[in-house]
Design a protein that fits this description.
Blueprint lengths: L11 H6 L9 H10 L10 H11 L5 H6 L6 H12 L8 H12 L5 E2 H11 L5 H17 L3 E4 L2 E4 L1 H24 L4 H26 L6 H10 L13 E2 L18 H11 L20 H13 L1 H5 L4 H14 L2 H4 L7 H16 L17 H4 L25 H9 L9 H18 L1 H48 L18 H24 L8 E2 L5 E3 L8 E10 L12 E9 L2 H9 L6 H10 L9 H31 L4 H29 L6 H4 L2 H8 L10 H13 L21 H19 L4 H22 L32 H22 L2 H13 L6 H8 L1 H8 L8 H17 L3 H12 L7 H13 L9 H25 L7 H6 L11 H9 L4 H41 L3 H6 L10 E11 L5 E9 L2 H9 L2 E6 L7 E4 L3 E3 L15 H31 L1
Antiparallel strand pairs: 1-3, 2-3, 4-8, 5-6, 6-7, 7-8, 9-10, 9-13, 10-11, 11-12
Helix pairs in contact: 6-7, 12-20, 15-17, 15-20, 19-20, 21-22, 25-26, 30-31, 30-32, 30-42, 31-32, 32-42, 33-45, 35-36, 36-37, 36-38, 37-38
C-alpha cells in the first residue's frame, strides 16, 4: 500500500520551497513488521481513509500553483533541497504514524491523553514546531476517531483493536492474491504437478505436526505403538537390560514345560501365604508360632534341596521342616497331634493326606439313585473332527476329585518307604502347597482377616474418591469464577482501575483449594500404603509394553521379580482350542540398583502401562541393594590409595634430596613411616572389600533366625511392660503350641538335637520319670541308656561331617556358586536300618515296663483269660458272647445315615466284640465295611455292615424288647448331638488303620490293639515313622505316668492322714478320713477274687493285691485297708476297708438293689461279673487238671 505524506516544515517558506515528498511503504515490509512485533498496533487503512487523513494534515498543493512557482536559480539551494528530500528525518514520517507510535510506546493500559501524546512527540522529534503540532494533533485525533482508528476512553486515546484485525485480514488477502498471481505465471504441467505435490506434502507434514502436538500422554500402549508407526516417530530408548534368572544356578526352577514357570511359582506362593501379601503367619493367632523368615532365606532352602545337600546331610533345612510342622499343627486332628514332631512330620503328613484322599474321593456313585455321568466328545464339539464318536466309546468324566494326583501322588507314594530328605524339591513343594491350600480353605481367622482388609480398603477407597470429587468440584468452581471475572473485565473494556470496591471477590480462595489438595493427597497416600501393606491377593505392580508382569512385595522389598513371556508351548491335545495358546513363562529378578535404574530408563512413559510401572518402581530404588554406592566407595578408596602413593614418592624425594638438620630429618622419616602405614591400612581395607564372604549355610537358610525365634521365651533381655503384655496376648491367641524345629540341626552331643537325638531324648526323659516310680537294676538301666546313646553317636558320625558346605569338592557343589548336584552320601557311618535296630529294642522294653507297672498288663491278661475260658461258661452265656457283635450291628438299622459318628462307633464296637468271640472272619469283614465310612455319607458303611450281619444269619431281637424301649428313649438325644460330634471328628473319622495304630500302645485304641503297635514298631523302615511311633507312645505314656504319679501322691496323703490320726489316738478321726477314689502302688496281683463295696457303686468283682513295699503293706494293715483291682478296670487300684470285702460268688448278694444305678453301670457290672466268672472257672479247671496230673 502506498501512503502519501506531507512533510512537516519548520516554517512556511521552507514548505513553499520544498515540494511535497511522497514516502512509499512496502506492504511486504509491513507484513514483516507484523510478524516481528505482533503486540504493536500497526498503521493500516483503506486508500480513501489515507487520502482524507493526509489531506487534513497538510494543505494540498495544486499542480497549477506548483507550476506558477518559479524554480530557484541558485544551484546550491537546489542541491540542498534535493538532498533534504532524500535524507531520512522526521519530516518524512506521517503525522498519523507519530500519534500511533506515541500511544504504543507510552504503554498506558487506560490510554494516553492529548497532552501526553504531545509531550512524547516533542521529546522524540524536537524539530517539530509546537504551534503547528497542537493544530495538527487535534485534527489527527479527530480524524482517527472518525475513521475508528482510535477510540476515546474518557480523556484518553487508545488504538482500536478492530482496526488492527481489519488490517490483518487485508494483508492476508493481498498475500493470497500475490500467490495466485505467481501461479498464473506457471505454464508447464510438470512444474504445476511438482508444486501440487509439494503443497500436499507440506499440508500432510503440517497435519502430522499438528497431530503430534495435540497428543496427550500417557496413552494406551497399543494405540501408542500404532500412532508412532503412523506418524513415523522413532522414540530412542535405552536398551532393556538383560535380567538374571531368579534362581540363576537352577534354570529349571524358573522355567519348565511341565509347570510353565518352574518351581518359583510354588516358592512365591508359600512365601506370600506365610509372610508375604497374605501373611497368615503374621496374624495374631499364628504370630507366636510361625517364624519371621525372609524370601531370600526360603529360596536358599529350596536351592539346598535342589543341590542335593539334604540327601547328603540326611535332613531337610530346618526352615522348610518348620513350615511343614506349622501347617500340620493347624490341620491334623487330635489323634495325630501327639505324633507330630520335627522328626516325624512326614509320617503324619502321609496319614493326613491319605485321610484327605478318602474324605474327598468317596465314591458317591455307589448310591442306587445316582445317574451316571455322560461322556463328552471334545473333538467333535470343538470342530476338530467332522464325525462324532459312538456313545459307547465315550468315557464319562471322573466323578471323583482326587486329592492326590500328579507329582503330589508320586511324593506321597515315596514317603511310604522313604524319609523326606530323599524327595526332590518339586515333590516337597507340591506337598507344602497342598497344605497351604488346606489351611487357606479352613482357616476362619484368615477368612475374617481378609474380610476386614476388604472392608478397610473399601472405606479408604471411598474416602479417596470423596476427596478427589471434592477437589474437582472446588477446582471447577474456582475456574468458573475466574473465567466470569475475566469476562466481566473484557466487557467493561478495562477502562477502570481494579480496586476492592469494584472488583468481585471469588468465593473459593486459593487457601481453601490448597487445603482440599492436601486432604486429597493424604487420602491417596493412606489408600496406597494400605493397599501395598495388606493386599487381598498377590498381583503385579505393573506390566511393560510386552505384557511382562512385574512383582514386588513390601514385606520383602529387596528384590523385584519379572515374569517374562517367551516361546509358545505346543499343546498336548491333538487339536487346538480357540485362544488356548500357552507360553513358556520365565521368572527373572532384579536385586541391584544399577540394573533397576537401567530397567526404569528403558521404560516408555508415554504409554499407560509403562508409565504406571515407572511410577511404581521409583519408590523401590531406595530399597534394593545399592551397588552403585558400593562401587563408588571402592573407586574412592583406590583414588585415595593413589594419592597416598604420590605423597609417599614426593616425601621420599624431598627426604633424599633435601639438606636438613637432625631434628628435621627425624620428622621427615616419621612422615614417611606414617604415610606407609596409611597405605598399608588402605590396601588392607581394599583387600577386605574385595574378598567374597564365605557362604554360611546356617545364616543363609534361616537357621540362626529360627534359633532366635525358638529361644525367645528363654531370652534374658528385660522386656518392657507393653512388650510383655503383647507377647502374652499373642501366646494366648495362638491355637497351637510352638514346636522347636531348630533342634534338628545336630550339635554332636546327646542333648536332643538331630533327627535321632530328638527321638532318643524323648525316651530318656520318659525313662527318668519311670525310674522315679519303679527303679530298675543299675546294670540293666545303664546298658539300656547306652544303647540309645550309641544310636545318636552313630547317626551324628554320618551326618555332622556333611552339614558343612564344601565348595571345593567338584563332585558335590554345595555353595550357591555351583550348579552340579551331589549324589548319595559316601560314608562308612551306620545306615538308617542299623539306627532303627538300635532304637526298637529299648523302645519295646520301656513300653513293656510301663505296661506292667500301670496295671494294664493284668487288665489285658484278665480279658484274655476270660476269652480263653469262654467254654467254661454256661451255654447261654457263651452264645450271648458269640452273638454280641450281631446285637451291635442290628442296632444300626434304627440309625439314619446322617448319624455318621454313631454308625462308626457301632462298627468299631462290633469289631471288638467279634475279636472277643475269636471270630476273625467277622473282624476282617467289618474292617472292610469301615473302609467305606465317610463322615458326610455313612450310608455305604452301614449297608456294608448290615450285609455282613445278613451273611452270618442275621440277629433275633425278641429277647431285647426291654432294652429297645430304653434305647429308643435315648435315640433322639443321640441324634441331636450327632451333628456336633461329626463336626468335631471331621478328618479323624476317615483315618486309616496305620493312623489308629500310632496311638494303640499300652491299652490299644478303637479296633487296634497293643500287638498291632508292637508289630508296627518291628516293621518300621524309616526314621520318620519311628519318630511318629515314639512320639505317640511318649505322649500316651506321659498321660499314664502323670495319672500314676497323682494316684501315688493321693495314696501317700491318705497314709499320712491315717498315721496322724493313729498318733493322736482319735479313732473317730480315722474313720472320718475319706478314702481316695483311685490309687497306685507297685503291687503283686494275687489270684484271690472277691466282691468289694466301693462308694457310689454296687458290689463289684475284684482281685486282691499285695504291695511289694513291706512298709506300705504294714501301714495299710494298720489302717485296716486292702488294695484291690476291680475287674474290667484298666490300671487303677482301689483302697477298700476290710469289712467291705466278701468272698467271690457268681451271683451278687441278695440285699443288692441295682435299680438305683444307671443302665450303663448295670451293663458294665454284668460284663465284669461274666468275665470274673469265666476267669475263676478257668482257674478251678486248671487247678483240677493239675491235681489229676499230679
Amino acid at each position: 500500500m502506498a501512503s502519501l505524506s506531507v512533510a512537516v516544515a519548520d516554517d512556511d517558506e521552507r514548505m513553499a520551497e520544498s515540494p511535497p515528498t511522497a514516502v512509499e511503504t512496502n506492504d511486504d515490509d509491513d507484513e514483516e513488521e507484523d510478524e516481528d512485533e505482533p503486540n504493536q498496533d500497526e498503521q493500516t487503512e483503506d486508500d480513501d481513509d489515507d487520502d482524507s487523513e493526509e489531506a487534513a494534515e497538510t494543505p494540498a498543493k495544486s499542480p497549477s500553483s506548483a507550476q506558477k512557482k518559479a524554480p530557484s536559480k541558485n544551484p546550491s539551494s537546489a542541491a540542498s533541497t534535493k538532498s533534504s528530500s532524500k535524507s531520512p528525518s522526521s519530516a518524512s514520517i506521517p503525522f498519523t504514524q507519530l500519534v500511533q507510535d506515541a500511544i504504543i510506546n507510552m504503554k498506558d493500559r487506560t490510554g494516553s491523553s492529548q497532552i501526553a501524546i504531545q509531550k512524547w512527540i516533542l521529546g522524540n522529534h524536537p524539530e517539530i514546531d509546537l504551534q503547528k503540532l497542537k493544530q495538527r494533533l487535534l485534527v489527527t485525533l479527530k480524524n482517527g476517531l472518525k475513521t475508528k482508528r482510535l477510540i476515546k476512553v474518557k480523556a484518553s486515546y487508545k488504538i482500536n483493536p478492530a482496526f488492527q484485525r481489519k488490517k490483518t485480514e487485508k494483508t492476508k488477502k493481498k498475500k493470497a492474491a500475490k500467490v495466485a498471481a505467481e501461479k498464473k505465471k506457471i505454464v508447464s504441467k510438470v512444474d504445476l504437478a511438482a508444486i501440487k505435490e509439494k503443497e500436499r506434502k507440506e499440508k500432510a507434514e503440517k497435519l502430522r505436526q499438528e497431530r503430534i502436538r495435540k497428543r496427550k500422554f500417557p496413552m494406551d500402549d497399543l494405540k501408542l505403538i500404532e500412532e508412532d508407526k503412523e506418524l513415523k516417530i522413532v522414540k530412542k530408548l535405552p536398551a532393556r537390560p538383560t535380567l538374571d534368572l531368579a534362581m540363576p544356578h537352577f534354570p529349571s526352577a524358573c522355567r519348565t514345560d511341565s509347570t510353565k514357570s518352574g518351581l518359583l511359582d510354588d516358592v512365591l506362593l508359600v512365601y506370600h501365604f506365610f509372610r508375604g501379601d497374605l501373611g497368615w503367619g503374621r496374624l495374631p493367632g499364628q504370630k507366636a508360632v510361625v517364624a519371621p523368615f525372609t524370601l531370600e532365606q526360603w529360596m536358599q532352602c529350596v536351592e539346598q534341596v535342589m543341590k542335593g545337600w539334604a540327601k547328603k546331610a540326611r535332613m531337610l533345612p530346618p526352615l522348610m521342616t518348620h513350615l511343614f510342622v506349622v501347617s500340620l499343627q493347624y490341620l491334623v486332628p487330635a489323634k495325630l497331634q501327639s505324633a507330630l514332631t520335627p522328626a516325624s512330620w512326614s509320617e503324619v503328613l502321609l496319614l493326613y493326606m491319605d485321610a484327605m484322599e478318602r474324605y474327598y474321593t468317596t465314591d458317591a456313585s455307589k448310591e442306587p439313585n445316582t445317574i451316571a455321568s455322560l461322556g463328552i466328545d471334545t473333538s467333535y464339539l470343538f470342530y476338530a473332527s467332522d464325525e462324532p464318536k459312538e456313545e459307547a466309546a465315550l468315557e464319562g468324566p471322573d466323578p471323583l476329585a482326587p486329592y492326590l494326583s500328579g507329582i503330589r501322588q508320586k511324593a506321597h507314594s515315596k514317603l511310604e518307604m522313604q524319609d523326606p530328605w530323599t524327595l526332590s524339591a518339586e515333590e516337597l513343594l507340591s506337598l507344602l502347597t497342598a497344605l497351604v491350600d488346606d489351611v487357606l480353605a479352613s482357616s476362619m481367622e484368615c477368612s475374617d482377616d481378609l474380610d476386614v482388609r476388604n472392608d478397610e480398603i473399601y472405606e479408604l477407597l471411598k474416602t479417596k474418591r470423596a476427596a478427589d470429587s471434592n477437589l474437582r468440584k472446588l477446582q471447577t468452581a474456582r475456574n468458573k469464577e475466574l473465567a466470569d471475572e475475566k469476562k466481566d473485565r473484557k466487557s467493561n473494556g478495562e477502562d477502570e482501575l481494579a480496586t476492592r470496591s469494584n472488583v468481585k471477590m471469588t468465593k473459593i480462595s486459593e487457601a481453601k483449594l490448597e487445603k482440599a489438595r492436601k486432604e486429597q493427597q493424604k487420602a491417596t497416600d493412606a489408600y496406597e500404603k494400605y493397599s501395598r501393606g495388606k493386599r487381598i491377593r498377590t498381583e503385579p505392580i505393573g506390566m511393560d509394553r510386552n505384557f511382562h508382569e512385574v512383582y514386588h512385595s513390601w514385606n520383602d522389598p529387596e528384590r523385584v521379580f519379572v515374569l517374562q513371556r517367551n516361546k509358545t508351548i505346543p499343546p498336548t491335545e491333538s487339536f487346538a482350542l480357540p485362544d488356548s495358546t500357552v507360553y513358556r513363562m520365565t521368572w527373572h529378578s532384579i536385586d541391584k540398583k544399577s540394573t533397576l535404574d537401567k530397567y526404569i530408563e528403558s521404560l516408555d512413559v508415554r504409554g499407560k502401562r509403562e508409565s504406571g510401572l515407572h511410577d511404581a518402581l521409583m519408590p523401590v530404588r531406595k530399597l534394593v541393594h545399592d551397588d552403585i554406592k558400593e562401587m563408588n566407595e571402592k573407586k574412592s578408596k583406590l583414588k585415595e590409595k593413589m594419592d597416598l602413593h604420590n605423597k609417599l614418592e614426593m616425601a621420599r624425594k624431598s627426604y633424599e634430596t633435601g639438606r636438613k638438620s637432625g631434628r628435621l630429618a627425624a620428622q621427615s622419616e616419621q612422615e614417611l613411616i606414617d604415610l606407609q602405614n596409611e597405605i598399608d591400612q588402605m590396601e588392607e581395607s581394599i583387600a577386605n572389600g574385595n574378598v567374597t564372604a564365605e557362604y554360611d549355610i546356617e545364616a543363609a537358610t534361616g537357621l540362626n533366625m529360627l534359633r532366635e525365634f525358638d529361644n525367645e521365651e528363654k531370652s534374658n533381655r528385660r522386656a518392657s511392660r507393653r512388650e510383655t503384655q503383647k507377647k502374652q496376648k499373642e501366646e494366648e491367641e495362638a491355637s497351637v503350641e510352638k514346636i522347636r524345629c531348630s533342634q534338628l540341626w545336630p550339635t554332636g552331643a546327646i542333648d536332643g538335637s538331630g533327627m535321632v537325638g530328638t527321638i532318643v531324648e524323648q525316651l530318656l526323659k520318659l525313662e527318668e520319670r519311670m525310674e522315679c516310680l519303679v527303679s530298675l537294676e543299675s546294670g540293666d538301666r545303664t546298658s539300656w541308656r547306652l544303647g540309645l546313646e550309641k544310636a545318636v553317636e552313630s547317626w551324628n558320625e554320618g551326618t555332622i561331617p556333611n552339614l558343612a558346605v564344601d565348595s571345593t569338592n567338584s563332585s558335590t557343589v554345595m555353595s550357591p556358586d555351583g550348579s552340579a548336584k551331589s549324589g548319595a552320601p559316601k560314608s562308612s557311618s551306620a545306615s538308617s536300618w542299623q539306627i532303627l535296630s538300635m532304637i526298637k529294642t529299648p523302645l519295646l522294653e520301656l513300653e513293656s515296663r510301663i505296661f506292667e507297672v500301670s496295671g494294664l498288663k493284668m487288665a489285658a491278661k484278665d480279658a484274655d483269660d476270660a476269652d480263653d475260658n469262654m467254654s467254661t461258661s454256661p451255654e447261654d452265656e457263651e452264645e450271648q458272647i458269640k452273638d454280641a457283635w450281631k446285637k451291635i450291628i442290628h442296632r444300626l438299622k434304627r440309625l439314619p445315615a446322617k448319624a455318621s459318628s454313631k454308625i462308626r462307633t457301632g462298627v468299631i464296637d462290633a469289631i471288638a466284640a467279634a475279636r472277643k468271640a475269636h471270630n476273625t472272619e467277622v473282624v476282617a469283614q467289618l474292617r472292610l465295611a469301615l473302609v467305606d465310612y465317610h463322615p458326610d455319607a455313612a450310608g455305604a458303611c452301614k449297608s456294608a455292615a448290615l450285609e455282613v450281619l445278613a451273611a452270618h444269619g442275621d440277629y433275633n431281637d425278641q429277647d431285647d424288647e426291654d432294652e429297645e424301649v430304653e434305647e429308643d428313649d435315648d435315640m433322639q438325644d443321640d441324634l441331636t448331638d450327632d451333628k456336633l460330634e461329626n463336626k468335631e471328628s471331621g478328618i479323624s473319622s476317615v483315618l486309616c488303620a496305620e493312623a489308629v495304630i500310632l496311638n494303640s500302645s499300652l491299652d490299644g485304641q478303637e479296633d487296634a490293639g497293643r500287638n498291632d503297635w508292637i508289630t508296627a514298631v518291628k516293621r518300621t523302615k524309616t526314621i520318620s515313622k519311628m519318630a511318629a511311633l515314639v512320639s505317640a507312645f511318649v505322649a500316651k505314656a506321659s498321660d499314664v505316668l502323670e495319672k500314676i504319679e497323682g494316684e501315688s501322691i493321693a495314696l501317700q496323703d491318705a497314709l499320712e492322714a491315717w498315721d496322724k490320726s493313729n498318733s493322736l489316738r482319735k479313732k473317730k478321726s480315722l474313720n472320718s478320713v475319706r478314702d481316695p477314689s483311685e490309687v497306685w502302688a507297685n503291687v503283686k496281683f494275687s489270684d484271690d477274687f472277691c466282691l468289694v463295696k466301693v462308694e457310689d457303686f454296687p458290689w463289684w468283682p475284684a482281685r486282691k493285691c499285695a504291695p511289694k513295699d513291706e512298709n506300705l503293706a504294714s501301714r495299710l494293715e494298720a489302717a485296716d485297708r486292702v488294695l484291690v483291682a476291680l475287674i474290667g478296670e484298666s490300671g487303677s487300684l482301689r483302697l477298700v476297708k476290710t469289712q467291705n470285702i466278701v468272698p467271690f460268688s457268681e451271683t451278687l448278694p441278695e440285699d443288692e438293689n441295682l435299680t438305683n444305678h444307671t443302665r450303663e453301670i448295670r451293663n458294665q457290672l454284668e460284663d465284669c461279673m461274666a468275665m470274673a466268672r469265666r476267669i475263676v472257672r478257668g482257674k478251678k479247671k486248671k487247678n483240677g487238671s493239675s491235681k489229676k496230673a499230679g
